[in-house]
Amino acid sequence: MNPQKGIAPIAIILIVISALVIGGGIYWWQKSKTDKIATDCIKEGETGPSAGINPESAKNLPTECCEGLKPIQYSGLFDENCGRRMITGAPSISCTKCGDGKCANGETVCNCPQDCSKTAISKCTFNEDEKKGWLSKIKEYIKNNTESDATKYNKIMDISEGRYQGKEVCETILDCCFAGDRAYIDKESGEIIGFQLGPE
User: How many domains does the chain have?
Assistant: First the structure.
């Protein structure tokens, strides 16, 4: 029997096995990288580890929010009056889109007042600090709900009581453009419910 005839099939088998091992290794290496990226950050609505967690237990847990999200205090750390309370083992943060005008995913009036504040307004009379606060909320509303450029507004020129979509509102006239663009604040809920471009 010619020994060289048996060598060729063995060599082919070894090559195939080597290719499978290498290919499998590359697959699992790439998968481990993908899995690591997926768990490297905290997703929307999820919470971060407790501040008092054992460092050894925490080293493999994500501690930062995924891109586009903001860390806010975990809602369970506040009482009904927004006072702080200590809860052993409670999460330290929640990752949300706080500031997008929607109160959701663990946001409350205590940890994200810009999205969740719903205080009834008795009179449409705001001091300068309150106007600045409302202007910030109005610009956020414009940014998230319209195609207008929110950056062009720098001041609330006037505020008056009125009606909009059947509701009693505080009508705010902004410093742009022409006759003034308007935003409407629902007096009952304290929420911005509309925006309208002024006549040119």
Answer: 2
76: tokens are 């369970």
pLDDT tens digits along 164-182? 999 999 999 998 876 789 9
Q: Do residues 86 and 136 share a domain?
A: no
Per the CB < 8 A criterion, the answer to whether 50 and 91 are in contact is yes
Beta partners for residue 185, in sequence order? 170, 192
Residue 39: pLDDT band (50, 70, 90) is low
140 shares a domain with 112:
no
| DSSP H or E segment with residue 185 | strand 182-186
pTM of the entire structure?
A: 0.44
Q: Which residues form the domain of 152? A: 128-196
Does 51 fall in a domain? Answer: yes
> What DSSP string runs through 4-63?
HHHHHHHHHHHHHHHHHHHHHHHHHHHHHHHHHHHHSSBPTT-BPPPTTS-HHHHTTS--
Note whether 140 and 99 are same-domain residues: no
Q: pLDDT by residue (tens digit) across 14-29? A: 676 766 667 555 665 5
